[in-house]
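Example record for the data management plan.
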Amino acid sequence: MLPAGAFGREHAGVIRRLGGNLGLRAADRAPTESLQLEADGYAVIRSVFGPDDIAAIADEIEVSFREREPERGRTDKDEFRYAMLNYGAHAQAAIGHPRILEVIEPLIGDDCHVIANTAWKNPPTFAGGPWHCDAGPHVPRPRDVPWDERIPYPIFAVGAHLMLRDCDLRDGPTEVVPGSHRSGRLPDYDRVDSPDFGYEGRGPIAVTADAGDVILFASDLWHRGRPADNGRGRLFLQCHYGRRDLAQRIVTTDEVNQLSAAAIERADMNGPRARTLVGLHAPYFYDG
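Corresponding structural encoding:
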């Protein structure tokens, strides 16, 4: 549900490119899911993919799990494979589906691009995870400083879960705290078990979905994987889309960078900060 008055704000958060810069788009009305994503931090696009597409993407993921080693030696958590667009034509086509793009482009630009693309296969005993933000918060601010509602809340990256299997409460769905992407801060980890955990009176919501649905959420949103209860196990293709200004993270910077061998050698000689300064970062969220 959208909060009261959300549609009353004129094209909140809707942007367009003006040459190499950004401006507000005041002409076209964005899809309902775009407005909910800007207001609540998440949205679901229903029935994007049919059975044939779902089967084709799932087959590519199964091949990838079978033929590729666990990422970075993580045999303790063999639940994901990075860079799926490099390993499957159906996966690459899916992340460019027009229904996804028409929702995210009004928020992060019609030149946004994929910054990470990961296949997930969680077991029926999926343990879930802690509350977190994927990145950010991009506009951090003190707890006692409210956001001025006259200013569209900026979204820099959007995560998408392309569901390849039905996911209900027993399967460990993603839980979100609506509106928390506007908080300007990280979740209060010492309150995650509190019955009043939430943001501005809005508590967690488990986002259940059917195969073929696409779940979208802003990178700043507080969310987590809910622990499963011996369900079917989750299977989905994850894609993160970022504004053009954000660098792609599909391959780590030690593999793909814009440096000469001599520049890398000099950075190695001068310590960790010399490496990060020229763009050689240790793997972190999105990377891979």
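Summary line stored alongside the record: The chain has two domains: 6-250, 252-288.
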